[in-house]
Known about the structure:
Shape: globular
CATH architecture of the largest domain: Alpha-Beta Complex
Distance between the termini: 25 Å
Low-confidence stretches: none
Helix content: 40-55%
Number of domains: 2
Strand order of the largest sheet: 3-2-1-4-9-6-10
Largest sheet: 7 strands, mixed
Number of helices: 11
Mean pLDDT: 94
Radius of gyration: 19 Å
CATH superfamily of the largest domain: Spore Coat Polysaccharide Biosynthesis Protein SpsA, Chain A
Amino acid sequence: xxxxxxxxxxxxxxxxxxxxxxxxxxxxxxxxxxxxxxxxxxxxxxxxxxxxxxxxxxxxxxxxxxxxxxxxxxxxxxxxxxxxxxxxxxxxxxxxxxxxxxxxxxxxxxxxxxxxxxxxxxxxxxxxxxxxxxxxxxxxxxxxxxxxxxxxxxxxxxxxxxxxxxxxxxxxxxxxxxxxxxxxxxxxxxxxxxxxxxxxxxxxxxxxxxxxxxxxxxxxxxxxxxxxxxxxxxxxxxxxxxxxxxxxxxxxxxxxxxxxxxxxxxxxxxxxxxxxxxxxxxxxxxxxxxxxxxxxxxxxxxxxxxxxxx
Length: 310
C-alpha cells in the first residue's frame, strides 16, 4: 500500500519547555514527513536555539523565523504563522498536509495510522487521534473529551485535495471547528479516533495556552458566537462543560464569552449558507445525539461528495 507523502506545518512560540519532546516524537515516526516547516513566531525563550539544532541535523526540517509581535495570539495569530509556513512550500507536492502543534508527544505510528485509515476511506478529508494530558496530581492520562465528529486542532491531518477544496483556514478562533463543518458541507468526512495507537499526549491542556483555562473558556464563547451557534446549543455546551475542570466556572466563562459577544455585536463568520448548515446540524445533535446526527448527515452528504468527484 502506497501511503504517499505528507507535509507538516507547525506554528511555534515560546515552546522551549515542550519542543524537544515533540520533535523527538516526530523523528521517531514509522513514516517520516517529506518536509516539516516550523514557523518560530517571535519566540523569546530558547525555542530558536532548539529549532536551529534540529534543523542542522535533519534536512527535512525547515525553520522560518518571524518578528516578535509582543504576545501569543491564539486563533488568527496561529493561522497567520501557519500560512507563512505553507507559502514556503508547494502544497501540490504533497498528498497530505498537517497543522501540528509543538506541545505534543505522538505515538510512533501516528501518521502511518492516519494515512492508512484515509487510504481505506477516500471520503475522509480531515482526521486525527485523540489528545490526553497527564493529571498533575495522580499522574494518570486524562482524555480531553474531543468528539469523534471532528479532527483535533492540535494535530489536523488533511488530504491536500480536501484542504484546497474547503478553501483553507478561517483566520479566527474556532477555525478548527469551522473547517470540519465546511468539509461536511462539501461531502467529506471529518473524524477522530480514540485508538490506543493514535492517542497523543498534550503537554499543555487544551484551552490553556494563552492566559489560562478560564480565558480559553471565554474565548470558546466568542468562537461559538463567531461560528454562528444558536443560544440553545451553547447552553447545552455549557452544561456539558460541567464535566470538565474548572467545574462551574468553566461553564460560566463560556456563557459570558458568548453573551458578551452578542451584546457587543462582534463580527460573525460571513457565510450565511454555512451558518444555516451549522445550526441545522447542531439542532439535530440536540435532538438525536451527536453521534447519530453526524452519522445521518455523513450518509446524506455522500451524494454531494460523489457529484463533486464527477
